[in-house]
Specification:
By secondary structure, the protein is an alpha/beta fold. The chain has 16 helices and 19 strands. It has 3 domains: 180 residues, NAD(P)-binding Rossmann-like Domain (Rossmann fold, 3-Layer(aba) Sandwich); 214 residues, FAD/NAD(P)-binding domain; 51 residues, no CATH class. The strands form 5 sheets. Strands 3-2-1-4-19-18 form a 6-stranded mixed β-sheet, with helices on both faces. It has a 6-stranded parallel β-sheet with strand order 6-14-7-8-10-9. A 3-stranded antiparallel β-sheet has the order 11-12-13, with no helix packed on it. α15 crosses α16. The structure holds NADP nicotinamide-adenine-dinucleotide phosphate.
Length: 451
Amino acid sequence: MTLSVAIVGAGPAAFYTAEALLASGRVKIDVIERLPTPYGLIRAGVAPDHQSTKKVAQKFERMALANAVHFFGNVQLGRDVALAELRAIYDAVVLAIGSPRDCALGIPGEHRRGVYGSSLFVGWYNGHPDFRDLDPIVRGPTAVVIGNGNVALDVARVLVMSEAELAASDIPDYGVETLRRSGIEEVVVVGRRGPAQARFANVELRELLELDECVTLVDPADLPENTAAPIHAGDDRERRLIERNLTLFRQFSRARRDEKRKRLRFRFFRTPVAILGDEAASGLRLETMAWRDGTLVATGRFVEIACQTIITAIGYRCEAIPDLPFDPARGLIASDDGRIEPGLYVVGWAKRGPTGVISSNRPDGEVCAAQILADVTAAARPGRPGLERLLAERGIRAVSFNDWRTIDEAEVSAARAPAPRRKFTTLGEMLAVLNRRLDARDIPDKWEGTA
Ligand code: NAP
């Protein structure tokens, strides 16, 4: 008895779920993805200079090439196929759709031009088709990144990268050009709490020491020894991680501002209260915070930073899907540890919120696979042939995994060394590669509108 499972989304949460399901030997899996490209945030979220992190895609590729797995790219839930239809076709449906929307700051001026949430800005510099036309205002001398998590660090680093560093990444040409012309000399990373509360990974922080053209600075007054900041560590391991970060912050606090051409400056204990300007942003107003009796309080003192580019990196939310339970406070699909109801599941950021690294999705996948195998005891639905029939009836030409490999090869062969690939950033470009291959074989079956 082979169960048919559809996984919607093709990012890490989808592949870890597929891995756990494949281990049972009882499941056929169709991965349904709206883009022609797999891997979700590995392609469009992980920073373009972090190519070693992206290598996990090789493991996912081996999985995608297994007989029991099929990739249906270029097929969008809600547009090409409804959730109810998928549920009628498959024994179980898993939503691995991430949390694609930026949290809002909720302060005046947030909608001025020059202010971008990290989902837009990261999508833009990573060549995601939805954001390649963002055309952001990226203008120096000072840009601000709000947030003290790893996304903020990625954004800040990209903003100060040298031409050589950019050339070794897979940032699209339009991004390189915009950054080159930006005139950015300083990036200020703003945190509402202190260095001991920041959520930066130590390796990401350490990497800042290696930047070609940029020195990293911290005001010594913000270090815990100079504030009344308590260090709340859940356990010894967390305490060691915080201490390792603090060692780096102390090192940054001793750096000279003119050591290199550009500066990345951490400003802690500052809460954003307004984005200044008219139609476009001209600055950011921050309120200074201070520790009083173990609590962080607003001091009523304000500082302003003149800047025309502000990126918020303060977390993400999922969008509500009609007829599905939604937790509006947390911005995620409500579930019982991933089970929405028997036959319908959610994994990854859409389940637990935007936390953790790529491999943090593995446990979700394992839980989900166990739930499916417990809930669905008999194969009762058509599975893959049912989806293929429905797509054929609607004239929808899905992109297979081998098609994606053709796109992948074309991107890699178009790269100028030392860049690892030259990404296609529109669906038209991606599908045209496939049409050219079909032309070469003289098969008249083309993707619509791309010839
Ligand atoms: P995050 O780690 O949750 O950080 C969000 C930051 O935004 C926090 O510093 C938070 O401050 C701040 N913030 C939230 N609301 C704010 C507000 N209204 N005003 C000012 N600051 C505000 O989220 P993330 O950076 O988006 O990362 C998401 C996940 O992806 C994380 O688990 C991260 O580790 C992971 N990731 C990992 C890597 C990597 O390993 N290389 C790279 C990128 C992302 P408070 O702490 O004060 O709430």
